[in-house]
Amino acid sequence: MIITIDGPVASGKSTAARNLARLLCFHHLDTGAIFRAMTLMAIDEGIDITDEDALIDMLKRVRIGLEDDRVMLCGRDVTERIRLPEVSAAVRPLAENPMIRSFVLDIERSVAKDTDIVVEGRDMGTVVFPDADLKFYLTSSAEERAQRRWEELRQRGTPQEFETVLAELVERDRADMTRDVAPLQVPADAVLVDSTGWSPQQTLEKLHSVVLERLGGRV
User: Fold this and answer.
1) What are the sequence ranges of the domains in the chain?
2) CB 38 within 8 A of CB 100
3) 23 pLDDT exceeds 90?
4) In sequence order, what DSSP letters do the residues of 138-178 get, joined into one string?
5) Which numeric CATH code is attached to 2-213?
6) Strands of 64-67's sheet in order across
7) Geometric angle at alpha carbon 117, from 210 and 84, rounded to 5°
8) Within its chain, how far is the Cα of 149 from the centroid?
9) Dihedral through CA 111, CA 63, CA 177, CA 144, nearest 10?
10) pTM of the entire structure?
11) pLDDT tens, residue by residue, 180-205
12) What is the Cα–Cα distance from 199 to 122, expressed in whole angstroms?
């Protein structure tokens, strides 16, 4: 069984997906972590992401493992490093590269094969798993999402001005929704959940109630 959660940046997708997966005893797949890990590898190795040959070589060598809540890159734990501002700023070109997306799509579908899983990202219900059993689109106001990201950066020791975080988030929304490859969209058959003003627990309770209502005895 596959449950997808799509939504814009800092909408709480990762936390919601992780919590829902634990509650249902499903696996959890953070697809954004895969793109971030590849971006970190490109940064560390000084790879020109506009050089297709260099990217092909990187794809031959990259090894990404998702173990519980940890992200492994070629045997190294990079869970914290993939969330650094420089990675966030550089991930979009790779995420929009058709070759990279095709490579990651194969990983995503392979991980989800023959298992019960909650997956989250920006095109899970529209492109990667169009026939998912249940689809969510999770969002909240730009100001609230920026506040979450600002607090996250502060806790990681990489603080930024709130106005800067908000402006970057609004620009990221625009770019994600207008990109040529797999743009961020609300799946036609998704349950729209606006979590503005909600706690993670309230969001979880809403998602879980929908799962029970829609899937009933199947979970």
Assistant:
1) 2-213
2) yes
3) yes
4) EE--HHHHHHHHHHHHHHTT----HHHHHHHHHHHHHHHHH
5) 3.40.50.300
6) 64-67, 70-73, 76-77
7) 100
8) 14
9) 90
10) 0.89
11) 888 999 999 999 999 999 999 999 99
12) 22
